[in-house]
Each structure stands twice: as structure tokens, then as C-alpha cells.
Amino acid sequence: MCVLTASFPPIDTTLHCVENQKTSTQIAPAMAPYCTTGMVVPEDDSEEALRAHARRTTFAIYHPVGTCAMGSVVDEQLRVNGLERLRVVDASVMPVVPRGNTNAPTIAIAERAADLINGAAP
Ligand SMILES: Cc1cc2nc3c(=O)[nH]c(=O)nc-3n(C[C@H](O)[C@H](O)[C@H](O)COP(=O)(O)OP(=O)(O)OC[C@H]3O[C@@H](n4cnc5c(N)ncnc54)[C@H](O)[C@@H]3O)c2cc1C
Description:
This protein is mainly alpha-helical and 122 residues long. It is built from three helices and two strands, in the order E-H-H-E-H. Helices cover 39% and strands 3% of the residues. The site of flavin-adenine dinucleotide has 10 residues, from helix 3.
């Protein structure tokens, strides 16, 4: 398993995972006695096998974010670019996948948005 912790763009994440897979392949024999379910490793250490393994085993640990990313869709006050009186207030404004859980940052975004809507200084 490869956990997504890198930021966008996705191609960098894929390469990051491929590099991690090389390390996993190297340490798999030594770790085998300590793994109850066995380590999931690539077929071999070819670039093609590593990329296929990364595609097969990578997931976003239930943290999909960024479909209305700050910078491209909304500005720093969560206002939708090019539209008036419309903000986005949820995890979709996160410009990168956070390394940790998303629930607390989402609540923080909502608290901040409430302040902004109430006229607090940006
Ligand atoms: C299985 C699972 C486990 C998780 N565990 C954790 C955890 O342990 N800790 C943690 O911090 N985070 C966890 N998360 C992540 C966290 O729940 C989410 O990141 C967070 O809830 C995102 O908040 P949100 O408001 O952006 O989206 P959501 O909570 O998904 O809210 C979106 C809302 O919009 C509504 N909606 C969608 N489309 C439309 C539409 N077209 N019109 C009207 N309404 C619409 C949906 O019905 C929903 O109510 C987990 C997520 C999952 C799926």
C-alpha cells in the first residue's frame, strides 16, 4: 500500500510512489517475518511494474479535496472567481491534499468563512 501524502500535481505523486516502491521492494525480504499479512510489493523493480503497482495500490485515504481549489476556483476569501456573492466553504477549497485528517481543517475553513461573511478583516 502507498498512502498519498504528496501534493499536486498528480504526476509528482506517482513518481514519489514509484520511488517508495523501490525501497519497499528492497526491504520486503527483511520485513517478511514481521508481517502477518505479507507485504504487497511490485512484480519486479522495472519502471513499468513500479508504475502499475503504484496505480493499483494508491488511494486517497477518504480525503478527496481540491475540486474548487483556492487559487484556481476561489480566492483567499473563498469567493468564486468571476462571480459575485458566492463562496465555497468545504474541503474542496483545499489547494493540496493535507498530510493529516481532513475533518478538523474543514471545520476551521467553515469557522474562518463565517468570520469573513460577518465582515471580519481578511
Ligand atoms: C469513510 C470515511 C472516513 C473518514 N474518516 C475521517 C476521520 O477519521 N477523520 C477525519 O478528519 N476525516 C475523515 N474523513 C474525511 C472527512 O469526513 C471529510 O474530509 C469531510 O467530511 C469533508 O467535509 P466536506 O464538508 O467538504 O464534505 P462532506 O462532508 O462530504 O459534505 C458534502 C455535503 O454536500 C452534499 N452535496 C454533495 N453534492 C451536492 C449537490 N450537488 N447539491 C447539494 N448537496 C450536495 C452532500 O450530501 C454532503 O452532505 C473520512 C471520510 C470518509 C469517507
